Prior knowledge:
Elements: H1 10-23, H2 36-43, H3 47-59, E1 63-64, E2 73-74, H4 79-92, H5 97-118, H6 121-136, H7 144-159, H8 162-185, H9 189-205, H10 209-229
Antiparallel strand pairs: 1-2
Helix pairs in contact: 1-3, 2-3, 4-8, 5-7, 5-8, 5-9, 5-10, 6-7, 6-9, 7-8, 8-10, 9-10
Amino acid sequence: xxxxxxxxxxxxxxxxxxxxxxxxxxxxxxxxxxxxxxxxxxxxxxxxxxxxxxxxxxxxxxxxxxxxxxxxxxxxxxxxxxxxxxxxxxxxxxxxxxxxxxxxxxxxxxxxxxxxxxxxxxxxxxxxxxxxxxxxxxxxxxxxxxxxxxxxxxxxxxxxxxxxxxxxxxxxxxxxxxxxxxxxxxxxxxxxxxxxxxxxxxxxxxxxxxxxxxxxxxxxxxxxxxxxxxxxxxxxxxxx
Length: 240
């Protein structure tokens, strides 16, 4: 009737115990963990078990070893790493372009509206510089898609909402390969992206949330039209 209970390896139990301390805020970012030998004594396990547990936590971004340091410190997973893990999950679940696009249609206009309400002067400077970098990038430049992604990332930062920042980064990564193809294939793509970025920046500068939301909606909607012109099927599964 019942399956045997699996016994978790000792390193997983050690990793889980340390992870619980971190997630419960008993250990906070920047706190220095005890040395491996001391941890081994506390958990009553071999030092190699502690080392494997710390390796697992490091891979998850919960601990890190600063350059030249002998002991681990509690860290915060980088947004890019979280987004990368989410992107892998979406790929494995065979999510299509249209699924990602629909999510962007929900998230990105609200991010732009929040950015308009919460931005500071540094945000405006960063957005303007990024938009100009895209405008001035030559045809066929493989870094163009990274510049477009950076524009979305900077808007997320200006929104001052970390949940939205983490959610949207994985979506941008998912669209990157097909976006690069669209930019290089559709003749008017660069001009339309540049125009949309300019109008979004103007709305953000004027703190006009409704205008920022409207132009971001048009911008993301334009992506779908560009993909169709480029011959990319909406049902095409995203790839890494």
